[in-house]
Amino acid sequence: MSTPYLETHPDERGYFGKFGGSFIPPVLEEPFAQITQAYQELKHSPEFIKELKYVRKHYQGRPTPVTFAKNLTEYCGGAKIYLKREDLNHTGAHKLNHCMAEVILAKHLGKKKVIAETGAGQHGVALATAAAYFGLECEIHMGEVDIAKEHPNVVRMKILGAKVVPATHGLKTLKEAVDSAFDAYVKDPINAIYCIGSVVGPHPFPMMVRDFQSVIGFEAKEQFDEFEGKLPDNIVACVGGGSNAMGIFAAFIDDTDVNLYGVEPLGKGEKLGEHAATLTYGEEGIMHGFNSIMLKDAEGNPAPVYSIGSGIDYPSVGPEHAYLNQSGRSKIGLCNDEEAVDAFYKLSQLEGIIPALESAHAVAFAMKLAKTLDKDKTILVNLSGRGDKDIDYVIENYPVPHAKF
């Protein structure tokens, strides 16, 4: 038998094919080497595994269930749609899966402070939660635009004890938050650790975050078999940086009969600056310390991006997603703002589940896909988060439909 994919990717230098690596200032080379060594030691440590399992079961509420979306399936009239309910994970999204583990790693390294960026605020809330649980300081960098848009999550971070730092340059969204957080970390890599919020950044973070998030996929694989007695035909997840998608993809990469769809935000249209569909319209480039596919402006710099989902408006994508897509293992789906809002309301009113706008992108694509497939086919959607953070914004900009569908 061939060696399982997860044991051979990335290589020892952090590359997935030609994507990945570590492009960092010399001052960070030693701290990142320490993080890599610590992770390699911890992931095989019975004590670490025991602690993480305890936290996941008795604090996070794992395993999260798989739900058959019966009403949505009947509405679409095609393939059966299932949901992996990461919206029921503590704090309301998948982000806590890697945040709890990263803070355990930080404690192992003797760090006193965790620093991170956040877009929609879910990673910020999750890291603030983990920091509170383990007794570390927490500093979250967030774009000014997103601070206004995602006010409930900003309040939650502050209540949890985190310091929220506005990113005031550029477009004042997710990319700028990453810039700001990275600059803060460079100033104090001895006492602090940068807990990256997705499968992006320099090695070892794309690998670490994938591994910590893979609990989603391995749980879902076992749970789905209880429903159908087989693997799902299709798996669908939204992709910005791509942590929730890699989390559910990880368990199925070697199962080549399972189609993997990463759904990108088409935003307002195909014009540069109106979307964040990196794999669809981008090209190879280096930003934030890793080589991947990115959207570039005329000068070759990261292009302005947009999405109604603050957590997925990022001008690059995790290097593993770039690799899986170019190798043909994964496929791209697209969803614009209007489709995402439509899915937001349909899942809410047909199933009683209010999804995050980011997750609604995956639901919208699954709805389109279902209509093209026979009724004996199946789709498993990673419902990566709940929509509490988005309800004020949606109501103000997209009035509630008058009637059920």
The largest β sheet comes out as: 6 strands, mixed
Number of strands: 14
Distance, first to last CA: 49 Å
CATH 2nd-level architecture of the largest domain: 3-Layer(aba) Sandwich
Q: Into which percentage range does the β-strand content fall? A: 15-25%
> What class would the helix/strand composition place it in?
alpha/beta
Fraction of residues in H or I helices: 40-55%
Strand numbers in spatial order across the main sheet: 3-4-14-9-10-13
Q: Specify the oligomeric state.
A: single chain
Overall domain count: 2
Net shape:
globular
Return the average pLDDT rounded to an integer. 96
Number of helices: 17
Please describe what this structure looks like.
The chain is globular and about 55 Å long. With about 400 residues, it is of the alpha/beta class. Helix content is about 45%, strand content about 20%. The chain contains 17 helices and 14 strands. It folds into 2 domains: about 15-55 and about 95-210, Rossmann fold (3-Layer(aba) Sandwich), CATH 3.40.50.1100; about 60-90 and about 215-395, Rossmann fold, CATH 3.40.50.1100. Helix 5 (about 95-110) crosses helix 6, helix 10 (about 205-215) packs across helix 12 and helix 11 (about 215-230) packs across helix 12. The strands form 4 sheets. A 6-stranded mixed sheet has the order 3-4-14-9-10-13, with helices on both faces. Strands 7-6-5-8 form a 4-stranded parallel sheet, sandwiched between helices. It has helices spanning about 5-10, 25-40, 45-60, 70-75, 95-110, 120-135, 145-150, 150-160, 175-185, 205-215, 215-230, 245-250, 280, 320-325, 335-350, 355-370, 390-395, and strands spanning about 15, 20, 65-70, 80-85, 115-120, 135-145, 165, 190-195, 235-240, 260-265, 285, 290-295, 330-335, 380-385.
